[in-house]
Amino acid sequence: MQDKPRLSCQSTPAASLSSTHLLQALLHSLKLIAQDARQQHNVSDGFVPDFRQQFPRAKQATYSTPWKWRAFETISVVEAATLVTNPFTAALSLFHQSGLDFPFPGTNPIFEYHSAHVVVLGAESSFAFLRALGATHVIDWSSPSIAATVQSILGSSVINVVEAYGSAHPTLAVSLLEVSVVSGTIIMLASSAAADTAALADKGTSLHNVYGSFEAHPILFRQWVAALPKWLSTGDMGVLPHRVVRGLNPQAVNVALDDIGKGGGVRYVVQVHVDDGDGDDGEEARDI
């Protein structure tokens, strides 16, 4: 069974976790097809995600992200290249007004992240990993009784649902909120239609679309970039498994995009500048 986490939902009370654990658990579930093919630049003091290289599949290929920040001391430049779109999208889903609007870590000491349930849907092979990241409960995404299991875990109404896998309609998320007696919020990855938003609003449910754009959210982006090195150094967040595509090889990149589209859970870094001069590519040539 492939790892295909689809959704995280958060409600109250009971458990022990931090805001960064919540972010990390959600991060593992996020999959943005076409935005996981990364270019990694070999520069001594930082990396520039400048995704402008055209590949044959034009709808998946053109990027322009002129942001630059210093690479982190605790991870390699290749690993840093995986911390671009998906982690920031997770942060937007949790800490921005377009998402759940929770306080950014360290800005509100009285907000009780530690009293939250974090229920994550994933494949059985990912259960231990998801719990290690901070999920308080994990449910097999193929289970026929997801809604009933979530209700049993929470013992109360679902409040917030994050659809962490891009889909046309929030069918699963809606099923979790249908039995709630309070208004709820659904966060989706910029994929739901206006008709869904209007229909859910009539039922008291808010539907928000989130798109991980640095340019559109510069204030949160700067907060996130400033906090990320600390989270990495303390182990509150870590680099997730990924695979390196060496060189600008359109065929290899398209194979990677196909794999991402299948929801297998592997993240890819495109190593643009490959130096074979010393005969040792080290981390660049291996899966991490």
TrEMBL record:
Presence of the UniProt keyword Oxidoreductase in the record: yes
Matching Gene3D superfamilies: Medium-chain alcohol dehydrogenases, catalytic domain (3.90.180.10), NAD(P)-binding Rossmann-like Domain (3.40.50.720)
> Which molecular function GO terms apply here?
oxidoreductase activity, acting on NAD(P)H
UniProt keywords (A-Z) are: Oxidoreductase
Q: Extract the PANTHER family matched here.
A: HYPOTHETICAL OXIDOREDUCTASE (EUROFUNG) (PTHR45348)
Q: What is this protein called?
A: Uncharacterized protein
